[in-house]
Amino acid sequence: MAPSKAAAASSPYAKDERVLCFHHEMLYEAKILDVRKMDDADAHSWQYKIHYKGWKNT
């Protein structure tokens, strides 16, 4: 069964959600800072801005 239009319109991950992200071969804990829907006509794709736990910006 194909996903409904309402389910396709929402991102699989939400802002402020904690996730695990790969960076090369390593897996890191991260927090989603921003979510944007990409303008792809063929697919439902999303862009995420994340912050890796423990990474400090000086």
UniProtKB/TrEMBL annotation:
Residues 13-57 form the MSL3 chromodomain-like domain. InterPro entries: Chromo-like_dom_sf, MSL3_chromo-like. SUPFAM superfamilies: Chromo domain-like. It comes from the Eukaryota. Gene3D superfamilies: 2.30.30.140. Component of the NuA4 histone acetyltransferase complex. This is Esa1p-associated factor.
